[in-house]
């Protein structure tokens, strides 16, 4: 893989993670495939907002959609994405558990 492709892949992954709703979708899909209506309820957003985020994640190549009758099932495009997400969370928490949105840590995030 060329350096440009690597940078593009990481940029898409970073963009996907830059939004809390997209991050929640990815983390839920890392555990199991899901359906938009169920994901919207679990995350607490409208179906339209969820649909917009799923379209973004599809465009980034991180999730795939599979039609199942009248419903569409979403899952991560590759199981390694789920492992990477769980690993990333573990690393971030190990490096500085106080560094997260809303924390009182200074000079962080």
TrEMBL record:
Tell me the Gene3D superfamilies matching this sequence.
Winged helix-like DNA-binding domain superfamily/Winged helix DNA-binding domain (1.10.10.10)
Domain named HTH arsR-type: which ranges? 2-96
Q: What is the lineage of its organism?
A: Bacteria, Bacillati, Actinomycetota, Actinomycetes, Mycobacteriales
Which GO BP terms, alphabetically?
Answer: response to cadmium ion; response to lead ion
The family database entries (PANTHER family) matched by this protein are listed as: HTH-TYPE TRANSCRIPTIONAL REGULATOR CMTR (PTHR39168:SF2), TRANSCRIPTIONAL REGULATOR-RELATED (PTHR39168)
In terms of Pfam families, this protein maps to: HTH_5 (PF01022)
Q: Which domain of life is it from?
A: Bacteria
Could you state a single Gene Ontology molecular function term? DNA binding
Spell out the protein name for this chain.
Metalloregulator ArsR/SmtB family transcription factor
Instruction: Identify the NCBIfam families for this entry.
Output: HTH_metalloreg
